[in-house]
Design brief:
With 383 residues, this protein is α/β, with parallel strands linked by helices. 45% of the residues lie in helices and 14% in strands. The strands form two sheets. The protein has a seven-stranded mixed beta sheet, sandwiched between helices. Strand 1, helix 1 and strand 2 form a beta-alpha-beta unit. Helix 3 crosses helix 5.
Length: 383
């Protein structure tokens, strides 16, 4: 099967969507019956693109609060996508032999009906939690989603929670949406103490500590964490690992107001090896997000033997199963009590480590790739 996939998420920071595309297609490329080309906008290439370190650097160095006017940025996004669609139609016409196009961005493209289109849907936060996203991104999404959804042959949802949301929101036939869950990268595994200590020393992180991993954006609900810290009996530091993202950073002001600035360490974006060591050394990963489509950091932490505390909202109970402690994302007192319990009890931590390792082992990218390929084949056979 010759697949054309949107490879543009591979060229920036390795965050959620980029990690999905890279992990999935690393497995699919190993299948002897599969050939993959990657659409990068202006051109299509036959090999998986390397990460764009220059693009990553720009994202990491962007001044806090910098943002072009929303209307101008939205217009640019729309124009750029229309141009990408034109390039796609050209490359499909010239490429020959493609059986299927896989869209890994926000919505299906208009490629003129020349190929079946499978769209991966990560979540509906741009509709359900629009206020937590940049206005230009919401405008861009709303402009295209209803215009382009009709071009999708099939949708992949990354959790059953998201599948049900898609069916409810867009009133689609049940058979048009299939759930195929994600998985932690195999490199996420427990690290030796000496290796963890070296990374903590390099990042300036004291031990013990609690950890948050992810983009520092409004939907991640960092305010709950900041409000819970002063309610704890233990003065354990918090490490926030992730790029600065977008949106209101009122929680940063709260740090100063509550006298917590020295207790919270902002590591910035960390690479996978650093993140693996942070997971391995943490007293717990705390993931208080208001809304997720899958919550991959939950499984990554579990795969490293890190106890997990996460919200009992959206897909997170589905992802975590019985292997995490669940918390109300609006109750800082409950979170503070749970964190104190984890700090005080090695028995609780060890139980969560064991349950988490077993839970994470149920999810592999090889399994995700097989399930995805089965959907691709079914879609092609149905044409």
């Amino acid at each position: 099967m010759h697949i054309l996939v949107n490879g543009m998420p591979l060229t920036g920071l390795l965050t959620g969507i980029g990690r999905y595309v890279r992990s999935l297609y690393s497995c699919l490329e190993a299948e002897p019956t599969v050939r993959v080309d990657y659409s990068l906008g202006r051109r299509t290439v036959p090999v998986m693109p390397a990460r764009n370190s220059a693009g990553s650097s720009l994202l990491r160095k962007r001044p806090q609060g910098w943002q072009p006017p929303s209307s101008a940025l939205c217009a640019y996004r729309i124009a750029h996508w229309l141009w990408c669609e034109r390039c796609l139609r050209r490359d499909i016409a010239n490429g020959g032999g493609y059986r299927l196009y896989h869209e890994t961005g926000f919505f299906p493209p208009d490629i003129g009906g020349s190929l079946p289109v499978v769209q991966t849907v990560y979540d509906l936060s741009l509709r359900r939690y629009a206020h937590t996203h940049p206005r230009d991104r919401v405008c861009y999404y709303e402009f295209f989603i209803k215009r382009r959804l009709r071009h999708a042959t099939h949708l992949l949802a990354i959790s059953e929670y998201v599948r049900q949301e898609i069916l409810d929101e867009f009133k689609l036939p049940l058979e048009m949406v299939t759930t195929v869950p994600l998985a932690p990268d195999p490199r996420f595994s427990p690290r030796p103490e000496a290796q963890v200590a070296a990374v903590l020393d390099r990042l300036g992180v004291p031990s013990p500590y609690i950890l948050f991993a992810g983009t520092l954006e409004p939907r991640k609900n960092l305010k709950l964490l900041i409000d819970a810290l002063p309610l704890m009996r233990h003065d354990i530091p918090l490490v926030l690992a992730g790029w600065s993202g977008w949106g209101d950073k009122a929680w940063l002001e709260r740090l100063d107001e509550a006298g917590l600035a020295r207790r919270v360490i902002l590591s910035g974006y960390v690479d996978d090896e650093e993140l693996t060591c942070l997971y391995s050394g943490a007293t717990a990963l705390v993931y208080p997000s208001l809304y997720e489509g899958f919550g991959l950091p939950v499984l990554e932490a579990m795969a490293c033997g890190c106890p997990v505390v996460c919200s009992r909202t959206s897909c997170l109970p589905e992802t975590a199963g019985e292997a995490a402690l669940l918390v109300d994302p609006h109750d800082p007192e409950e979170l503070a009590g749970i964190l104190d319990r984890l700090v005080e009890s090695e028995t609780v931590r060890q139980s969560l480590r064991e349950q988490g390792l077993a839970r994470a082992a149920l999810f592999t990218w090889e399994k995700t790739a097989r399930q995805t390929l089965a959907v691709f084949q079914r879609v092609c056979d149905g044409r």
